[in-house]
Design goal:
single chain, 56% helix, elongated, 5-stranded antiparallel beta sheet, alpha+beta, disordered N terminus, Alpha-Beta Plaits, disordered C terminus
């Protein structure tokens, strides 16, 4: 019985300690050749790994093309198309009506002391020559005193379209710059007055400038903060720079594609640039961190054995 038991123990058992440990990679096996990628692998990831230079080339071309598309700008939705319900119908009726008028900028000058109506009108006539004959102005109206007894209002008609649907003339924001400069000069020449300007051109210009400043602020704040967090997490400039560069590249590609869609398919919301930057950068960095974590995990696993045992 003891002989049979000994013979039984000498038989190779698939569940024995030897067979189990034989499947565990050895720590030191320098003679083992690296394992070639499986021929039947058809996944996109495996294809990219085997042809990394092609992937870098295609990515560079895609990034350059997206930046070129972004050069034409992003077409945003007109104000009247953002309205709904009765407001949308009223805006459509107003846009379809032809009143034969031009978009008008209102120049408002306010004095520190009360003015008689005659003095207010005389002040308006003193300001009117500053707007006559400048580019983008077709007519300067008569001044009229304000109801507060300290201000005067001067109407300046712009040579621009009344609505964004009219493409025969430039938009008010495109021609209002000389009028804004004239207002600034008047304010510098008359410090005793408070001179301002309001109208479709100046409002659109201010909104566009605000959006541009917000986008620039998002760039100046989000990118350094992201880099600092990645530096703290990784402790290395290269490891922190890879997710950030990939995130910026993904944002550039998204903005380029958005510009192409806005010009050829449908206009987009004016705030799309800030949304793409913030969300796209967060998602791009997140996926880059995921890939780096997978790479680090695989590298630690490979240290326990050779490629042929993987």
């Amino acid at each position: 019985m003891s002989k049979g038991f000994a013979g039984l123990c000498q038989r190779p058992c698939p569940n024995s300690i030897e067979s189990m440990t034989s499947t565990v990679p050895s720590r030191v096996d320098s003679n083992c050749p690296p394992k070639e990628p499986e021929k039947h692998s058809r996944s996109l990831t495996a294809w990219c790994v085997r042809r990394k230079w092609w992937v870098l080339l295609v990515s560079t071309v895609l990034l350059g093309g997206s930046v070129a598309l972004l050069g034409s700008g992003i077409a945003t939705t007109p104000d009247e198309e953002e309205l709904v319900g009765d407001s949308a119908r009223a805006a459509a009726i107003h846009a379809a009506a032809d009143f034969g008028t031009h978009p008008t900028e209102q120049i408002i000058a306010t004095a520190a002391e009360p003015l008689t109506p005659e003095a207010a009108v005389a002040l308006g006539w003193q300001l009117a020559p500053a707007y006559k004959g400048i580019d983008g102005v077709v007519r300067v109206g008569e001044p009229f005193p304000g109801a507060d007894g300290r201000s005067v209002v001067l109407s300046v008609a712009l040579d621009a379209a009344r609505s964004e649907a009219d493409t025969s003339l430039p938009q008010p924001a495109e021609v209002v710059e000389p009028v804004l400069e004239a207002t600034s000069r008047l304010q510098a020449e008359h410090p005793e007055l408070m001179i301002g300007q309001v109208g479709p051109g100046s409002l659109d210009r201010e909104v566009n400038d605000t959006i541009a400043r917000d986008f620039q602020k998002a760039e100046l704040v989000s990118l350094p903060v992201t880099l600092i967090i990645l530096l703290v997490a990784f402790g290395a400039v290269l490891a922190a720079g890879v997710p950030l560069v990939l995130g910026i590249g993904s944002v550039a590609v998204a903005l380029g594609l958005t510009a192409a869609v806005s010009h050829n398919v449908i206009a987009v919301d004016p705030n799309i640039q800030s949304l793409v930057l913030l969300i796209g950068l967060a998602v791009g960095v997140d996926y880059a961190l995921f890939v780096l974590r997978r790479a680090a995990t695989s590298r630690r696993a490979n240290r326990l054995g050779c490629h042929c045992c993987a």
